[in-house]
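Entry 14. Structure prediction run on the chain below.
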Amino acid sequence: MQKDNAIRAEILRYLLIFFIVIGGFIAIVGSGGEDESGCTPIDVNGVWELYYTKTKVGIAGTFGPFLAVFEQSGNDITFTIDDKEGGVGTIVCGQFDTSDIALSWTDAEGSYTGTGIVNSFSMNGDWEADGDPVGTWRAEKGDAFATLYYLPDQGDLKILSIDVYTKDADRVYITGDHIDGEVELQNCDAVQGYQYWQISDSGECTPADNRYDIEEAVTFPLYITVHVVNESGGETEDTVRINGDEAIYTYPYELNG
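Output returned:
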């Protein structure tokens, strides 16, 4: 009898060890890459081209694109829009190959929220202003973007300010109307896996230097071309058209190629 009890105890001891080991293995495998929501959300780090619609009478229409830079840590998101308005958000796993996203931001005109879904290359959803439904929004991810600001009334000067986000570029420059030959952009700090380029007369990467002065009367339309030369020597370009000088213009666009 004592021998049988000893055998049973030994078997139970081995079974207990077996289940502890298996349970630990399952826990380790199951936790790989997961966050607090129990799974791994879509990675939204990087630069996105953002559009939104307004449906109210008098302001209806589609607006954009704008340039949004997202930074993600687990479920938490911070973002900027055209290097100006900043916001925060959260992201959790959704159905199939999507994640659910919620954003909030403020500017001088009010507070805004947006909700929707995101996959690896696009986002879309609805947004509200001060709690009232306003319209829809969407964003697309690309390999290269540029944003051009045209400031027409700065004394005797007309000012161009250009931000370019690329991957694996060796050189970025602009040509076009009222541009003196080829104007080089400076390679500044990286932003979420993208190279960041800006115009700079001083060679320094500071917002105050991000300008090109036009010291002559401007005729419209005004065409500016952004050229991106990759590390193998290949070149892509895209041209933006400015139609008038009555406002500040923002032209984010995806570079061809």
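Residues 1-33 have pLDDT under 50 and may be disordered.
Filed with the rest of this week's runs.
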